[in-house]
Amino acid sequence: MTQPVSVPANVTLPELTFRGVLLGALITVIFTASNVFLGLKVGLTFSSAIPAAVISMSVLRLFKDANILENNMVQTQASAAGTLSSIIFILPALVMMGHWQGFPFWQTLGICAAGGMLGVMFTIPLRHVMVVQSDLPYPEGVAAAEILRVGSAERAQDAAGDGGQPAGKPAATGMGDIVTGGVVAAVVSFAASGLRVLGDGVSGWFALGGAVFRLPMGFSLALLGAGYLIGIVAGLAMLTGLIISWGIAVPVLTAMGDMPAGQTLAQYATGLWSSQVRFIGAGVIGVGAIWTLATLFMPMARGVKASFSALTKAGAARAGQAPRTERDLSAGWISVVTLILVAVLVITFQVFLSGAPLSAGAIWKLVAYAVLFAFVFGFLVAAACGYMAGLVGSSTSPISGVGIVAIVLVSLLMLALGGELLGVQNGVQMAIALSIFSTSAVVAVASISNDNLQDLKTGWLVGATPWRQQVALLIGCVVGAAVISPVLELLYNAYGFADAMPREGMDPAQALSAPQATLMLAIARGIFTHQLNWTMILIGMAVGVGLIVVDEILKRTCRVARIPVLAVGIGIYLPPTVAAPIVAGALLAWLLERALRRRADAAGKPYEQYADAANRRGVLIASGLIVGESLVGVLMAAIIGGAGTDAPLAIAGEGFASTASYLGLAVFVMVAVLFWRRVIRLG
User: Fold this and answer.
1) Partners of residue 217 on adjacent β-strands
2) What angle do CA 195, 200, 205 make, to 5 degrees?
């Protein structure tokens, strides 16, 4: 296989520079905060590789000696840290269950940094077999490489002068699109969550007989952008989940029961959805996760075999004789760093269990169980997650599904081996907490494994030095891990989580749903207390199996139509005003694609050539919408936390709520129209 590089192996350029590390750290802080907020709100995170590459090019072009490899290192570092924020899929459960009252900095840093860096270590030996020799598409990695190449070519044209233009005339990098989306989303979000002059959603409730129906819509521009990025297939799957929950399950349950006196339709139906229907979603997600891992078992087995083979070979790369573009971190460095990280995990788990009413020997035994599980299961899922990222991209890989499988396995392990802990006072509570903390390490490993190979694909395409990229990934993990605890603490104290408010009198409507953490806590509790809502979970599992059968039929008979089971489960599980704007964003992306295809056909040009610039602009604007609204959410958290009230900047009272909802809808539609016009213009 010929290696398509932009910088030849015999050319050496500055890559891992001090200014690049500083810029990468700054971008890391921004995208980690954004992803933490988005993940807690809707249970989704976005890949930061493409916007990080654009920001890096826009800043480093101010320096004459900047180059494509330095830009690649910046986006590598930033994308790793943004991906590490997936830890919020599980870690908030410790606060929800009352084990933590906040997020202890050193424990959070230890579990995130050690887990994430182990994810880097586990996937280094997979680079050659899964990146260089594989035909996996790696969509975000290839897109980021293309952006870096185009930016580098435009920079060269700027320096030389092109087409009669004077040398030094700056070419567009796409930074303006990110800034435009970010500013628009920030202004709208501040007007909604800060000033309270715009509504954030609206729902129509009506009863048909005894059945209660809901027509929901949220006005979040970040979710519009997220829907645009996930695309129409995942969007329709989430719409299917919405229909299952609010078009079938809730109406059936409300028709079968009697509404308690004093409750409204909304309160009655929402209560049933929260206590019953969400467990159907949990069953669908669980089946989807198991099915995904099962279908990837053989590639995962090949990846693990390749890992051992790569570690035992005395290759030329370890002797420094390989070309620059083939030099990974040596097996010696991998072993040393891995041992250090295992030691960090041991210390972190020991501190976590230090308050348990057990003997020192019993505590160390539990620490050994937890670390061994995190290490072995993390190593196994590293290859699977790297393969999934190559197949479907980092943004759509089922990391939360991996977490569900992990929480079930570790809970069963603690039930079988943790008898000494279960026998003491509050032992069950501590066992649940330890299971959640162990799963957090696995999720950190899985999320970085999911991202690492994507970044290494970008590096391979542009001619980067692999070992330098791997160092950048390690730096990104440390910086991102340091940011996660303060951001989680800030958001928790400002908004609270579902069923976990830090102080009395807070508005539960403003609480962050943290859907995956809520689900995993419910699963762990149910396993240890034998009180899991098995009826609804089994119904969900049956629905999941049916969806898998339909998806397999569609895969064989229709090239386009598919039903991603995990996305359906998320659509059932998420609050409907959260899922609806995601569906709207996916629909917007589909309509734009159809319009661009029609125009390409009319112009007699291939679609890929005609729509390349437009599609890139759409991705960057959508990323800007997510970042802008998320950063305002973090800023408002700081303001709310400092003021000690839910709406310190509100200028509109409760009587304005109805008008604010209509204004919010109008602004949401207007932004979608402007989004359309700005993207279609480049066709």
Assistant:
1) 202
2) 135
Q: Is the pLDDT of residue 467 over 70?
A: yes
More confident residue, 658 or 161: 658
Who has greater pLDDT, 252 or 144? 252
Which residues partner with 160 through β-bridges?
none
The neighbour count for residue 542, using CB atoms within 10 Å, is: 14
- Residue count (the chain): 683
Alpha-carbon distance values, 542 to 130, 281, 285, 562, 587 (Å): 34, 11, 11, 18, 28
pTM: 0.76
CA 628 – CA 170 distance, rounded (Å): 25
pLDDT in tens, 537-551: 899 999 999 999 998
Rounded distance between C-alpha atoms, residue 249 and residue 246, angstroms: 6
Identify the band that residue 396 occupies on the pLDDT scale cut at 50, 70 and 90: low
Spell out the residues 6+ positions from residue 217 whose beta carbon is closer than 8 angstroms to its own: 201, 202, 203, 577, 580, 581, 584, 665
**What is the end-to-end Cα distance of the chain in Å, rounded?**
34
Burial of 608 (0-12, 13-18, 19+ CB in 10 A): exposed
User: Is the Cβ–Cβ distance between 621 and 589 less than 8 Å?
Assistant: no
| Cα 223 to Cα 42, 84, 189, 464, distances in angstroms | 8, 20, 12, 34
C-alpha of 626 from chain center: 12
Query: Of the candidates 637, 537, 580, 481, which has an alpha carbon nearest to the alpha carbon of residue 214?
Result: 580
Closest of 605, 583, 559 to residue 597, by C-alpha: 605
Cα dist from 554 to 112, 530, 604, whole Å: 39, 38, 31
User: Could you tell me how far CA 257 lies from the centroid of its own chain?
Assistant: 38
Contact 167, 158 (CB under 8 A): yes
pLDDT in tens, 319-346: 456 788 888 888 888 889 999 999 999 9
Rounded to 5°, angle at Cα 138 from 133 and 142: 100
SS3 658: helix
